[in-house]
Amino acid sequence: LHERRHTLGSPRDADAMSSLLEDSFIAAPTPGGAAGPAHAAHDVEICGVPTKIALTAYSNRVFVVVTQTDNLGTLIAAERDLAIDPTCTCYSTRVLLGRRDDETLEVYARTMVELVAKRFATDAPPLLLAISIKEHSPETFKAVMKFVEEHRVW
């Protein structure tokens, strides 16, 4: 197990996010002997803005945190829908908590769930995305998607 803790600013922030932002490359065994979720956390710079990205693959879903503000921001659920036509791929997103007026955040979730789904022939796990981006731009969007694709844990 490789571990690195990241400090987020205030001690309260660090306590609240420490489990999300620990760096482990292979799931570590839990006390019962079962493997835990695959997880990786990264401190990167995207378009000049310090960004924390945490990727976790649980047995029933993928959880991704992208934050430039040291908080979880908006929480969005996204999943591949069952389509009548098997050649058609449909996805749905739903804001669970946070900014419902920012459609750009749903675009992040929709694109990210497609990245997850393309790794699974069938039964792709749903995505839970926590995202807080300071300023939206096409460059930021492309950089985040590229980073997630290159560092996926699923």
Total E-strand runs: 6
Approximate shape: globular
The proportion of residues in beta strands is: 25-35%
Order of SSEs? HEEEEEHEH
> What is the tally of helical segments?
3
Mean pLDDT: 81
Determine the N-to-C terminus distance: 18 Å
Give the helix level as a range of percent. Answer: 10-25%
Q: Unreliable runs, pLDDT <50, ≥5 residues?
A: 1-31
Computed structural class: alpha+beta
Radius of gyration: 16 Å
The order of strands across the largest sheet is 1-2-3-6-4-5
Largest sheet data? 6 strands, mixed
Describe, in plain words, how this protein is organized in 3D.
With 154 residues, the chain is of the alpha+beta class. 23% of the residues lie in helices and 30% in strands. The chain has a 6-stranded mixed beta sheet, covered by helices on one side. A hairpin with a 4-residue loop joins strand 2 (49-57) and strand 3. The longest helix is centred in the C-terminal third of the chain and has 15 residues, at 103-117. The radius of gyration is 16 Å and the shape is globular. Mean pLDDT is 81; it is low at 1-31.
